Amino acid sequence: MLSVPIRAPRKMSRKQAGFSMIEALVAILVLSFGLLALAGFQLRVLSDSVGASNQNIAAQLAGDMADRIRANLVTGAATDSPYVADWSAASTTAPDPSCAGSRANCSATELAADDLWNWKRRVASALPGGLANVEGNSTAGGLLFIHIAWNEPAAVDLIAPDPDWSCPSGKACQQVIVAVPQP
């Protein structure tokens, strides 16, 4: 028969008892701080992505209105343009007469009212808290200024727009300038 001597387990001193447990807890703490930082970074990236998407949508909507203005040959001073509109939302009822469809027979002023109504509704539905206006400036010559405002996520640092735009407070704004044909 073979006998193997069994050694008694070595006793740890009181100073070393529980040392590996403390190491594990510190490692978990450091890992949890890293994961929290990563989650915060991910939230910031998502917020910035939404902000960039809103700016892209606003640019497309402003370009759409600029094309509508250039396509409708309304002559006269920019300040008297039928496209000049305030920040109010589009009414719930369509302008009369409707200029939709190939059989519509609208004047340039009626077409401008229809364009504004449809465009303001699109701005409101495409952007969170979306509002829009069109301003004419007598000192700027034949230019119309298209402004679009919307609510941005709270984490995004808004760039303060020019105070002359009268952008609604707490909203992000974008401006597009359109040359208007003069008489």
Jot down its keywords.
39% helix, alpha+beta, 183 residues, three-stranded antiparallel sheet
Average pLDDT level? 80
Termini separation comes to 119 Å
H/E element sequence: HHEEE
Side-by-side strand order of the widest sheet: 1-2-3
Contiguous low-pLDDT stretches (5 residues minimum) are none
Largest sheet: 3 strands, antiparallel
How many strand elements? 3
Radius of gyration over alpha carbons? 32 Å
Shape: rod-shaped
- Measured as a percent range, the helix fraction is 25-40%
Number of helices: 2
Structural class: alpha+beta
Strand fraction equals 5-15%
Account of the protein in words:
The chain is an alpha+beta fold. The chain has a domain at about 55-180. Helices cover about 40% and strands about 10% of the residues. It has a three-stranded antiparallel beta sheet with strand order 1-2-3, covered by helices on one side. Strand 1 (about 130-135) and strand 2 form a beta hairpin. Helix 1 runs antiparallel to helix 2. The model has no long low-confidence stretch (mean pLDDT about 80).
How are the secondary structure elements laid out?
Layout: H1 19-71, H2 108-126, E1 131-136, E2 143-150, E3 172-179
Antiparallel strand pairs: 1-2, 2-3
Helix pairs in contact: 1-2
Compose a concise summary of this entry.
With 183 residues, the protein is α+β, with helices and mostly antiparallel strands.
